[in-house]
Amino acid sequence: MVKIHGTEKIIQKTFELGVSDVHTISAEAIPIEAHLAKLCEEPKCDGYGQSANCPPYGMKSGQFREYVKQYKHAVVFKFDVPTEVLLSEERREVSRLVHETASAIEKFAINDGYAKAKGLAAGSCKRLFCGEYEKCGVLTRDGDCRFPDLAKPSMSGLGINFFELSRLLGWQISKITKESNPDDVPMGLMAGMVLIG
Ligand code: SF4
């Protein structure tokens, strides 16, 4: 684990939340690539345009690159998940867990004095939290998120290169698609992060 002075308590808390691993990296090391954010649009993810936390809404990758400059560190965590689960409907439960974990770490960090702590997660919050509603609450006229304490911006939508990030952190990661055979690639992962200022 990379140890950065001041984040030890947050790392400890993150492990207590049941993650498979967590590292702290310098925020400026987060790999951000605009062309990856465009993959939400083409080929079109079913979360595209569905919530304020996914493209084309929210920050563009260039804005995110500037936004990250106000932070010193990023606490990045992962859950190791069997490929069979990632290829099934259960994937949603894992994705929801990533949002919940990022939210819990964000809250802990804020209480620990990092007032600007900002959690990011994987997957569309519309699918995970607002599936029973026709539209995202922020994108409709009332303008309020129904789950402000849980729903986090999508890391993919911000252009974070998760494969490169995993490489930097020493995590083994394979691309898993609908065609992947769990016998060949038995495990995958889902991850989230919290920016710490
Ligand atoms: S209202 Fe629902 S879909 Fe919109 S940002 Fe909040 S959780 Fe996501």
Could you explain the architecture of this structure?
By secondary structure, this protein is of the alpha+beta class. It has one domain. Helix content is 30%, strand content 15%. The protein has 7 helices and 4 strands, in the order αβααβααβααβ. Strands 1-2-4-3 form a 4-stranded antiparallel beta sheet. The radius of gyration is 16 Å and the shape is globular. The mean pLDDT is 92. It binds iron/sulfur cluster. Residues 51-53, 125-126, 129-130, 136-138, 145-147, 151 line the site of iron/sulfur cluster.
Order of strands, main sheet, comes to 1-2-4-3
Q: What are the bound molecules?
A: iron/sulfur cluster
Figure out the total of helices: 7
How many runs of DSSP E, i.e. beta strands? 4
Reading the helices and strands in chain order gives: HEHHEHHEHHE
Q: What is the C-alpha radius of gyration, as a whole number of Å? A: 16 Å
Could you list the spans in which at least 5 consecutive residues all have pLDDT below 50? none
Q: In total, how many domains does the architecture comprise?
A: 1
pLDDT averaged residue by residue: 92
Largest sheet: 4 strands, antiparallel
Strand fraction:
5-15%
Determine the N-to-C terminus distance: 20 Å
Structural class: alpha+beta
Give helix % range: 25-40%
Instruction: Tell the overall outline.
Output: globular
